[in-house]
Amino acid sequence: MKVSNIRLPQDPNNSFIVLKETNPFSKWHHHPEYELVLIVKGRGRRMVGDHVDRFEENDLVLIGPYTPHVWMCDPEYFEENGHFAGEGIVVQFVRDFLGPRFFEVPENNPLDKILEISSRGLQILGDSKQKIIKTMHEMVLMDSTSRLYALFSIFRILMSPINYNILASTVFMKQIKQDEHNPMQKALQYIMMNFQKQIYLEDLLEITNMSYSSFYAAFKNTYRMTFKEYLLNIRVGYACKLLTGPGHNISETAYLCGFENISNFNRQFKHIKGITPSEFYKKVHQKNNDYY
User: Fold this and answer.
1) Is this prediction's pTM over 0.85?
2) Where does residue 42 fall: left (phi above 0), alpha (psi -120 to 50 degrees), or beta otherwise?
């Protein structure tokens, strides 16, 4: 499986891209631009590197160059007549669109640090998120010059102390910087796109063109755990995201995370998290209720 290199169309008279996206969100892909993604309408599953989470409306993420990502909307956003009900706003720019050293001048050091961290994907939160969302909506209707200075205002927000969650792991980003045809990268890409269904070792051996012993050793050396352990951690991690939010009971969560039966889900969840799914659910939702 290969990461697609998807590029948005750019007006030759503009130095960066502002796009109101009304088509189905792209498949697993990357590109050389920095990208600020705002989900205006939609909810579903977001993957950035090896991080999997649910997303809702007003999800705002900054992604660095060549970091694989995808937003996959739930089926309810795809109507029978082929119409897509989701909507997003995307801002893209390459590092040198303002000159080769713009981000390296001393005054831009805080911004440069944020852009460096964005290689792992940053989910932006709090007041900074609301200010950026407001500006992105306004940019859609602006002329080219106004958009440029609006982007500067976003840079100014990013330079100040902001709240954010870092998404992809350092292990993943270390691997992604290698040749995209690296066998372990191919294996991880396949796992990330298919962890919700059965994954057979034979498929990974075929994808990587490796023997069992070679694959086992290479995977464990790269990710510090076996393929099975890594897959279970991805599934249980996604289960935690589902159980933290509304709308999914434990049985539904087990199915959505690739477990064939509830007993195995309970056993693996407790092995990794130290508590059962029901205990985790009660703990999270009791904590949320304490705020009311």
Assistant:
1) no
2) left
At the second CATH level, the architecture of 4-166 is Sandwich (2.60)
Tens digit of pLDDT for each residue in 65-113?
988 888 989 889 998 777 899 999 999 999 999 998 999 999 999 999 9
DSSP string, the chain: ---EE------TT-SSEEEEE-SPPP-SEE-SSEEEEEEEE--EEEEETTEEEEE-TT-EEEE-TT--EEEEE-GGGB-TTS-B--EEEEEEE-TTBTBTTGGGSGGGHHHHHHHHHGGG-EEEEHHHHHHHHHHHHHHTTS-HHHHHHHHHHHHHHHHS--EEEE-S-HHHHHHHTS-TT-HHHHHHHHHHHHTTS---HHHHHHHHT--HHHHHHHHHHHHSS-HHHHHHHHHHHHHHHHHHSSS--HHHHHHHTT-SSHHHHHHHHHHHHSS-HHHHHHHHHHHHHTT-
Q: What is the CA radius of gyration of the chain?
A: 20
What are the boundaries of each domain within the chain?
Answer: 4-166, 170-289
Structure tokens at 92: 């893209």
pLDDT tens digits for range 197-212 = 889 899 999 989 999 9
In the CATH hierarchy, which fold is given to the domain comprising 170-289?
A: Arc Repressor Mutant, subunit A (1.10.10)
Whole-angstrom distance, CA of residue 91 vs CA of residue 95: 13
Domains 4-166 and 170-289 share a fold: no
